[in-house]
Write a structure and sequence with these properties.
Elements (H helix, E strand, L loop, with lengths): L1 H36 L64 E4 L2 E4 L8 H4 L12 E9 L3 H7 L7 E4 L6 H10 L4 E4 L23 H12 L7 E5 L1 H4 L4 H10 L3 E5 L5 H6 L4 E4 L1 E2 L6 H18 L1 E6 L3 H11 L8 E2 L2 H9 L17
Parallel strand pairs: 3-4, 3-10, 3-11, 4-5, 5-6, 6-7, 7-8, 9-10
Antiparallel strand pairs: 1-2
Helix pairs in contact: 9-10
């Protein structure tokens, strides 16, 4: 009997000892993970004040706490801290969308061709008058609206620079309004299925290469209705551009009177031409290598291309170093026999269209 009790007591001691040991090991592991394995904090540029619902009065400043990323090169002035200096605003022309070019739908305001035949691509293009035969260069800054610091900084670029915004941006109508009051024309970015989808997923409203026509049209309508006032849409063609599903989308865009810019390729060129859709291919990035040397090399290549074929389009991200370099570079173009033009100027020329009466365009002009 004693041996049985002793054996039972021993087993209990072993069980409790094992349990305590496991608890101690687990506690040590949790502490170790919390102290040594937690990801290090990254310092990123951010604002503590959201974008106001409407552009501020000229001269008004935004009070915001801005912390630049210490790993990026120093950039001075409003491009470094756009929260404290607003771009020059011009209130001579209205920035509101033309209601005759808007269809009220369950999705929201969709673009349409007006009863007089005028299209959004004409109404919302930045007014431009060609002077002489200088080679033309257009710059398109992409992926705006998701980071307030980069978006605010882009408004300080020369007003001939075109700005493309994500459809997933909050306050997109306000961003459009501020951009247009600063003299910029705007585009809406279309998420198109890339080659590495779904590992690379552009979002829940991505136009799918394997989707049905009805599903893609529904996604397209949701995207186009985010905010009115854009003259064209743009996106990376990817797998979608090579699929049969692209044709109905290009046809729908043509029927709504907007243009299409394909980034990183020209797979949509034939489909767009068949749909009678104003189209441009923009394969040339200027900040694939976001350094002064890399950007200068890409801008030099862009200038050479413009001199060779009469025009060129450069695509850029809104990196601080890119924006600062664009401002400096743009100021030298005229003296070197080149012309900085909005993307719409090249698109309309290639499509054989014109903006018509400049006073009919609601795009505000700026002296930026």
């Amino acid at each position: 009997m004693w041996n049985a009790r002793r054996s039972l007591s021993l087993r209990k001691s072993l069980i409790w000892g094992s349990t305590l040991t496991l608890l101690m090991v687990g506690t040590v592991a949790l502490v170790w993970a919390a102290v040594f394995d937690s990801p290090s904090e990254q310092v990123t540029a951010s604002f503590t004040t959201p974008l106001p619902s409407r552009p501020p009065v000229p001269g008004e400043t935004l009070e915001a706490a801005f912390t630049p990323d210490p790993s990026t090169p120093d950039v001075e002035g409003p491009l470094a801290n756009p929260g404290f200096t607003e771009p020059a605003l011009d209130d001579k022309n209205p920035s509101e969308p033309d209601l005759t070019l808007v269809d009220a739908t369950p999705f929201g305001p969709l673009p349409r061709i007006g009863d007089d035949g005028r299209r959004p691509i004409q109404a919302y293009a930045r007014p431009f008058e060609k002077q002489g035969d200088a080679p033309q260069i257009a710059i398109l800054v992409t992926d705006l609206g998701l980071q307030s610091d980069a978006t605010n900084a882009s408004f300080h670029l020369p007003s001939a620079v075109s700005l493309m915004f994500s459809p997933y941006a909050e306050n997109l109508p306000a961003y459009f309004e501020r951009a247009r009051l600063s003299g910029h024309e705007v585009l809406l970015q279309l998420p198109l299925e890339p080659a590495d989808y779904p590992a690379n997923d552009p979002g829940p409203h991505t136009l799918r290469a394997s989707g049905t026509v009805d599903a893609n049209i529904e996604r397209l309508n949701w995207l186009l209705a985010r905010a009115p006032g854009y003259f064209a849409v743009g996106g990376r063609g990817g797998t979608f551009a090579k699929s049969p599903e692209a044709a109905p989308i290009m046809k729908a865009l043509a029927e709504k009177g907007v243009g299409m810019i394909e980034i990183d390729g020209d797979n949509l060129a034939d489909t767009s031409r068949s749909a009678n859709l104003a189209y441009l291919s923009a394969p040339d990035w200027i900040d694939t290598t976001p350094s002064l040397a890399g950007i200068d090399q890409a801008l030099g290549d862009l200038e050479a291309k413009a001199r060779l074929q009469g025009y060129a389009i450069g695509v850029a991200e809104a990196y601080p170093i890119t924006l600062k370099r664009l401002v400096d570079w743009a100021s030298t173009l005229e003296d070197r026999g080149l012309s900085l033009v909005p993307v719409s100027a090249i698109m309309l020329d290639q499509a054989g269209l014109s903006t018509g009466d400049n006073e009919a365009s609601s795009l505000a002009q700026s002296e930026n």
